[in-house]
Hints:
This protein is an alpha+beta fold. The protein contains five helices and four strands, in the order βααββααβα. It has helices at 15-23, 27-36, 60-68, 71-80, 99-106; strands spanning 2-9, 39-45, 50-57, 91-92. It has a four-stranded antiparallel β-sheet, with no helix packed on it. A hairpin with a 4-residue loop joins strand 2 (39-45) and strand 3 (50-57).
Amino acid sequence: MRRVCFTLQVKPERLEEYRRRHAQVWPDMLVALRDAGWHDYQLFLRDDGLLVGTLLTDDLARAQAAMDATEVSARWEAQMAEFFIHGRQLVVLDEVFNLEHQLGALQ
C-alpha cells in the first residue's frame, strides 16, 4: 500500500463549520470510503485554511473513482464544495523522505 499526502485550501471564514462537519461524518460516507480503498485516512487543518490529508491505498485513481461512483459521495461533495477556495481538486504531494524505507535499506 502507498501513503498519499494531498492538500486543499479551505476558505478561512468557513474553518469552524468545516471542523464541525468532520467531527461526525455520515456513517454511510465512512463505510463508502473504507469500501473504496481509503485506509488510515486523516485530515489536518491549519488556521489559515491549509488542509493536509493522508491515506493509505493500493491505487489512488481507483479509490477516487470508486468514491465518485457512490451516491453518498455525490451528496457529501455537493455540500462540501462551498468550503474550498480552488475547488475540490486534490494537490498530491511527492514523498521526499521516508524514515522506514531508509532504515530498511541499512539492513
